[in-house]
Amino acid sequence: MKNLLLSCVFLCGSVLSFAQVDPNELPGRDGGTYTSFDEYDYTWSVVNCEEGASINVDMNPDEELSDQVGVFTTSACTEEGFQCDMDFVPMDFSIRHTFHVQVWAPAMDKKVVFKIFEKDNPDNNHVVEAMTTKAGEWDTLSFDFSAAENGVYNKWSIHPDFGSETVGEIWYFNLITVARHHVTYDDGVLFDFDEYPNYMYMWDCSGGAAEFLVVDNPIKDENNMSETVGMMVTSVCTYEGAATHETFVPFDFSQGAVFTIKVLAPRADATFRFKIENHLDHNNQPLTVDVQTTVGGEWEILAFDFDGAQSDFYDRIAVFPDRSSEIEFDEWFFDDVRFTGQLTGVEDRVIKVADYKLDAMNYPNPFNPTTTIQYRMAKPSNVTLTIYDLNGRLVETLVDQHMAEGEHSASFDGSEYAGGVYLYKVQTDYSSLVNKMVLVK
Predict the structure, then answer these.
(1) For the purposes of burial, counting CB atoms within 10 Å of the CB of 4, is it exposed (0-12), middle (13-18) or buried (19 or more)?
(2) Scanning 130, 187, 315, 390, which has the fewest C-beta atoms within 10 Å of its C-beta?
């Protein structure tokens, strides 16, 4: 965990100060991320409150997602909240319209208001509400601003527990992002590099020759007449690729779960991997499909079927050309990522989803004083099983070794610990999960 950059509490009207950011480099313009308390140094202040409320930056109660988060403490005010004092580029809701906010609430069914407004005319605003669905753990709230006017609003504020007079409740916030529609154009196109050249970035490589670039289309043919395309140059890394900067509205797979992408490979019979994941934690139940190229030196359309995948969970994409190969300086080109729903004539090149989902549970739960944590591994891997308290402090490491696939278990003895809620984390090379358990004394 990183050292705390700043931790202070201030009354309404005071300000938490950070270095300012060049307006030309404001987040949200390309990547869709407006706030990550780990990454962006901003000025914050309390709004709509006379006294008692506070906003500060402190440690994440669940250190697995990020190190630092915003911490808001309520007062008796009913409409209090906090805002980023920076002005943003006026928001364009024709491209992205759904704000996602990570929230750690003290209770369920609490109203949270997200307000966007015009700096020079605060009365010109648009408000969307959401209700918390979890308590004492991270939840993602969504706020749909598709009805908001484009290019007008350049500030926002968040109002926890709106309308309530609670005093001294602690709320945690992090990772405020705005997502694109997942189907914006005809034929289900998610993005291409002619319109969004800065859409992807290099992913998962330890260095060397690998890089991701946006370049002129080297071969225009009937399968791809685009002017610009993405290009991956490979290295000896076996898991290099490119991922989308921003998130999509979580995909609905109820009517089909097929993605397609145009690929120009250096040769036939090479593996191209397509991955979908949840942006809050890319190790949280990711799904991948591997497809073999059939030609080299010309464009073809590869299809990836995620049949059976959970709807309304996966919101980000990554691609891995030449998966598992250690060939250096190969050039792969790709373009035109689509969410088509159904297969369209390329079924023979789709193989089964490589589902590396990690499962775990403990029993009994609640327990006193011992419980057994059972977990299932889809393939061999290094694994750690660790116990944390709700403040993110490590309590005990139960497992730290390489293990075979299949069912495993470990016991936790809480005799020497205080009663309450504890978290156990199972971490493998390919996935991780965190569950809660309750020690009763």
Answers:
(1) exposed
(2) 187
